């Protein structure tokens, strides 16, 4: 079986590296091409790149694992994400595409903020770039943890070997081909992920004596702590809000919204949105099916699964021939690598444009910035690999912390910066710092696990609300004179 699996994976790796070399030859001549692909992404590529870089190993490991343990009640995370993504495409995408080009062709989110609020340009660029690098180191680590789990579980190999092998492959095509390589590989990876999430639930549901929906429901009805209801006795209003609040994070995820900046034109944003939401709906439903029907299969077969987040890997190994298993593992790697590469590139772009060019060498040439960006990709990846050193780390836990950090720090800031003319630079700094610090403190105090003797509150909620409040209050108390006005596409 191992031979067939490795044949499929080798083909997958070769395709990813081939795309990297293609992008190197066509779109790494200057910093705009390396960082943003020349703002020339077709709608379908931008859409699936945003989706694939968003979902990561969480889609095939974390979400199915949560549903495997508790049942359909955990699917509220998917509902919240779908709603948040749709609003993000409607509100943020067209405005960000138009304004980043109008504000002197801003190439990164920190650069856009600096040009939108020139009175606080340096502070905004430095603080936002610092937050991006710190939280992305944690976020990238979650992807490497997923890679480590895949190799240790599927191939009986070393966890650390899996972490470094995953990182090495991602670094190869990201360093070589830049943004275009990342987006083109995302497109291919997104197609692979969606196809895998269509195939697996159907096979699991009807394989052997599966019996379809009826037998799955009968099997799961007797599983303690598992529910096929959208609500159970342990679900509180706060718990429901915490699950739905995942959707708030979309407005502040730099690796996702940077795709909006690269769409070929503002007019094509709506087409990209339709592609993106269709892909997301299919993929989320498939992931939910993997978790629920996978639990039914495990219970029916009497299998013991030590780590619920490896249910996708177990099903791939158990139910499919070697070549198809290799394809399914490639889908999992695609989910992991598409997000890791996007995060590494956004982090390195901020280090190159918002640290190096701003503080070290203001007259740096485009070729120098590209070189610094490539070095930064390797450096951030190495730090993330060190964070991912613990094989007992939970993918969903790491993702939730980083997702909340970005969502609270940048979410309210991006929404108001793009839509509210009265916002000031000082208000922007206040919101950025308030959101990030609230999330960090909330996690440190353990209030996401238990708050005031009751259930925990997801750190996204207080972080997002307090950041929004800080921006509004400080902006109204300070002068907006000297700031650019947010007059973008509706």
UniProtKB/TrEMBL annotation:
Catalyzes the sodium-dependent uptake of extracellular L-proline. One of its GO terms (biological process) is proline transport. One of its GO terms (molecular function) is proline:sodium symporter activity. Keywords: Amino-acid transport, Cell inner membrane, Cell membrane, Ion transport, Membrane, Sodium, Sodium transport, Symport, Transmembrane, Transmembrane helix, Transport. It comes from the Bacteria. GO terms for cellular component: plasma membrane. NCBIfam families: Na_Pro_sym (TIGR02121), sss (TIGR00813). The keyword Membrane applies. It is a multi-pass membrane protein. It catalyses: L-proline(in) + Na(+)(in) = L-proline(out) + Na(+)(out). InterPro entries: Na/Glc_symporter_sf, Na/Pro_symporter, Na/solute_symporter, Na/solute_symporter_CS, Sodium:Solute_Symporter. This is Sodium/proline symporter. The chain crosses the membrane at residues 6-24, 75-93, 123-142, 162-184, 191-208, 237-258, 279-298, 318-346, 367-389, 395-418, 425-445, 457-477.
């Amino acid at each position: 079986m191992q031979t067939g699996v490795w044949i499929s994976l080798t083909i997958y790796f070769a395709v990813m590296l081939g795309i990297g070399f293609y992008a190197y030859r066509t779109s790494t001549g200057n910093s705009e091409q390396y960082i943003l692909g020349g703002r020339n992404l077709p709608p379908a590529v931008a859409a699936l790149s945003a989706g694939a870089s968003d979902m990561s190993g969480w889609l095939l490991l974390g979400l199915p694992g949560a549903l495997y343990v508790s049942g359909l009640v955990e699917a509220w995370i998917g509902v919240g994400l779908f709603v948040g993504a749709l609003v993000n495409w409607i509100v943020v995408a067209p405005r960000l595409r138009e304004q980043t080009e109008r504000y002197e062709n801003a190439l990164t989110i920190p650069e856009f903020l600096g040009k939108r609020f020139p009175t606080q340009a340096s502070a905004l660029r430095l603080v936002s770039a610092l937050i991006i690098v710190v939280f992305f180191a944690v976020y990238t680590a979650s992807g490497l943890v997923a890679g480590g789990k895949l190799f240790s579980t599927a191939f009986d190999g070393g966890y650390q070997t899996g972490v470094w092998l995953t990182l090495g492959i991602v670094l190869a095509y990201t360093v070589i081909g830049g943004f275009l390589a990342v987006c083109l590989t995302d497109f291919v990876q997104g197609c692979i992920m969606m196809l895998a999430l269509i195939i697996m639930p159907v096979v699991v549901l009807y394989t052997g004596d599966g019996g379809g929906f009826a037998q799955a429901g009968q099997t799961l009805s007797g599983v303690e702590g598992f529910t096929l209801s959208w609500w159970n006795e342990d679900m509180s209003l706060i718990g429901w809000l915490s699950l739905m609040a995942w959707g708030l994070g979309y407005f502040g995820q730099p690796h996702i919204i940077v795709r909006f900046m690269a769409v070929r034109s503002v007019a094509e944003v709506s087409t990209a949105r339709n592609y993106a939401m269709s892909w997301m709906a299919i993929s989320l439903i498939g992931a939910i099916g993997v978790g629920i029907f996978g639990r039914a299969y495990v219970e029916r077969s009497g299998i013991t699964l030590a780590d619920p987040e490896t249910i996708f890997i177990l099903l791939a190994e158990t139910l499919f021939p070697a070549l198809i298993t290799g394809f399914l593992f490639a889908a999992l790697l695609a989910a992991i690598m598409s997000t890791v590469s996007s995060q590494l590139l956004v982090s390195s772009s901020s280090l190159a444009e918002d640290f190096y060019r701003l503080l070290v060498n203001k007259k740096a040439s485009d070729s120098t910035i590209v070189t610094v960006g490539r070095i930064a990709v390797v450096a951030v990846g190495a730090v993330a690999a060190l964070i991912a050193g613990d094989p007992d780390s939970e993918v969903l836990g790491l993702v939730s912390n980083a997702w909340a950090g970005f969502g609270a720090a940048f979410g309210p800031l991006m929404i108001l910066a793009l839509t509210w003319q009265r916002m000031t630079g000082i208000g922007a700094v206040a919101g950025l710092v308030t959101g990030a610090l609230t999330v960090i403190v909330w996690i440190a105090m353990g209030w996401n696990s238990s708050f005031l003797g009751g259930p925990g509150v997801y750190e996204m909620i207080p972080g997002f609300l307090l950041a929004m409040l800080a921006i509004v209050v400080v902006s109204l108390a300070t002068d907006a004179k000297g700031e650019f006005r947010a007059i973008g596409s509706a």
